[in-house]
Specification:
Elements lengths: L8 H17 L10 H21 L3 H27 L5 H30 L1
């Protein structure tokens, strides 16, 4: 049993993704500070935050709910990254570097959710 959310591989990967998103948005124009810059950063930071919050809850069902929210934030983040690329704020090579992180994070969230659901069934 993992006692600390910081020991979760998915949380660590989500933190890496969030840091990468902050790095990628740093050169965005100042007039985007309250637009895509903020949206990308908020969605990215929401992923590990919801994993941590869910882990800290008393019930597995609550953890599952927070993992679902984290997954929703992940899809929101991907959409913002695609948009930033399409309007010329994010270079293709930056997008190509971020997408494997989002894909892997999503896979890990899904596997953790499946594992927790099996635990509920037993």
């Amino acid at each position: 049993m993992i006692k600390d959310y910081r020991d979760l591989e998915v949380w660590n990967l989500a933190m890496t993704l969030a840091v990468e998103c902050y790095r990628m948005t740093k050169p965005f124009p100042k007039d985007e500070l309250f637009g895509l810059t903020s949206q990308i950063r908020r969605a990215a930071s929401s992923i590990p935050a919801n994993i941590a919050e869910g882990h800290g809850r008393d019930h597995t069902k609550e953890f599952l709910n927070h993992l679902s929210i984290a997954n929703g934030s992940l899809k929101e983040l991907e959409t913002h990254l695609f948009l930033a690329n399409k309007i010329g704020l994010l270079a293709q090579d930056e997008l190509d570097r971020a997408l494997p992180l989002t894909e892997r994070t999503g896979q890990m969230i899904t596997r953790l959710r499946q594992s927790l659901k099996r635990r509920l069934e037993t």
